[in-house]
Amino acid sequence: MGRAPAQGPEFCRMIGDVQTWVSAAETDDDTCTDGFEEVPTDSPGVKRNVKKIVEKHVGRIARFTSNALALVNLYASSSSRSRHVKC
Known about the structure:
Layout: H1 8-34, H2 50-83
Helix pairs in contact: 1-2
GO molecular function: enzyme inhibitor activity
InterPro entries: Invertase/methylesterase_inhib, Pectinesterase_inhib_dom
Organism: Linum tenue
């Protein structure tokens, strides 16, 4: 059997941790593409469109991450009301 759902302060701590992790992932998408600023597009072996391809995929992941954070926040809000706790 599974563990009982978190209650009170434990629930708030767990939700806070998840919000922090997902927010950090959102921040990392900019850091990922920032590294391409230093790579000249005419460097041997570097295709001109690599940065665009990476930015496209990172942008897509950023949207998923943003949606995930919205869902976590919605869950936290609705669950804290039903648990009668304020996080």
